[in-house]
Design goal:
The protein has 293 residues and is of the alpha/beta class. It has 2 domains: 219 residues, P-loop containing nucleotide triphosphate hydrolases (Rossmann fold); 65 residues. The protein is 33% helix and 28% strand. It contains 11 helices and 14 strands. The strands form 3 sheets. Strands 6-7-8-3-9-10 form a 6-stranded mixed beta sheet, sandwiched between helices. Strands 2-1-4-5 form a 4-stranded antiparallel beta sheet. A 4-stranded antiparallel beta sheet has the order 12-13-11-14. Helix 4 crosses helix 5 and helix 5 runs antiparallel to helix 6. The longest helix is centred in the middle third of the chain and has 14 residues. The two termini are 42 Å apart. The structure holds adenosine-5'-diphosphate. The site of adenosine-5'-diphosphate has 12 residues, from strand 2 and helix 1.
Length: 293
């Protein structure tokens, strides 16, 4: 199984905005964390993969075949979870899944079986007759994942599946995705690094429509060794320190603040202690101009 995005360029507003710029990537089964700040081009990429948008140039190949030429045959192997929109608030969960199954042209008997299995899998069997408008954020995310899984797709495209969830629900959804990801190509778009830190096979960093890197988390972290430090400062020194250092996190206690920052090996900071890097540090390393400190 291989999904290959080849030299895809997409512009908006008659070429003024270049959302994707000669973007290429090859995906095989496993979870890919698609990471980038707002405006990086994540949604554009997902919409081009699903066929909702056409690129200006370039193509998407599924096992070597052009997906635009495959048409319905490609749509039957792909599941897409969009961001939560209140489109279906009047539908019960069950009716919503039946509706999506009809759009995917799944035969009645097969749909009945899949819907009951998927409702059980996302733990919503008991709530299946409730209207989606009455669902919590986490329940809505789970039903959106369920519809993406109709037809047992080989490719699963998830657009910010943890958006708007509380920390407990976030962990639940994350674990759930990791469990169902076996034997599927999963593209998990987020700007929350912790979402994909432990479940991604590879991280794809997207910035201004271009690929910054595509690598295993462990490999990325290895390259960051010797860059991440912590220093303990009195509270009144923190704001000056932040003007001259790339700070990734702050932990305050009664007497001071532990400041985590990216060390400049050419100008080491006195009193700083080297720390094991985390993906959050990597994100700041690549996107510090877009992160407010
Ligand atoms: P992300 O999903 O990473 O936030 P998007 O793919 O939504 O990024 O956007 C990439 C760029 O394309 C941004 O500069 C955005 O403003 C622009 N863009 C996206 N959709 C449109 C559109 N329909 N019309 C004009 N510009 C758009």
């Amino acid at each position: 199984m291989e999904l290959s995005i080849q030299s895809v360029t997409k512009t908006y507003r008659r070429g003024q905005t270049r959302a994707l710029d000669d973007f290429s990537v090859v995906l095989t089964p496993g979870v890919y964390g698609l990471l980038g700040p707002n405006g990086a081009g994540k949604s554009t990429l997902m919409n081009i993969i699903t066929g909702n948008l056409h690129p200006d140039s370039g193509s998407v190949l599924w096992n070597g075949k052009d997906t635009r030429k495959m048409g319905a045959a490609f749509r039957s192997v792909i599941g897409y979870m969009p961001q939560q929109q209140n489109l279906y608030d009047d539908f019960t969960a069950k009716r919503f899944l039946w509706y999506m199954a009809a759009l995917k042209k799944i035969p009645h008997k097969k749909a009945a079986q899949q819907i009951s299995e998927l409702l059980a899998m996302v733990d919503l069997t008991d709530a299946s007759s409730k209207k989606l408008g009455a669902y919590s954020g986490g329940m809505k995310q789970r039903i959106l994942i369920a519809q993406a899984l109709l037809n047992d797709p080989d490719i699963l495209i998830l657009d910010e599946p943890t958006a708007g969830l509380d920390p407990k629900e976030r962990i639940r959804i994350r674990n759930f995705i990791s469990k169902i990801a076996q034997d599927k190509i999963v593209l998990f778009a987020t700007h929350v690094v912790s979402d994909i830190e432990f479940i991604a096979k590879e991280i794809i960093l997207l910035k201004a429509g271009t690929l910054l890197l595509k690598e295993e988390p462990a490999q990325i972290l290895r390259r960051m060794e010797s860059l991440v430090c912590e220093i303990y400062l009195p509270k009144d020194m923190v704001s000056d320190f932040m003007k001259t250092h790339r700070v990734t996190n702050l932990f305050a206690d009664e007497s001071g603040v532990t400041v985590r920052f990216l060390n400049d090996p050419n100008h080491p900071t006195e009193g700083a202690v080297l720390k094991k890097p985390m993906l959050e540090d990597v994100y700041l390393f690549y996107f510090s101009d877009e992160v407010q400190t």
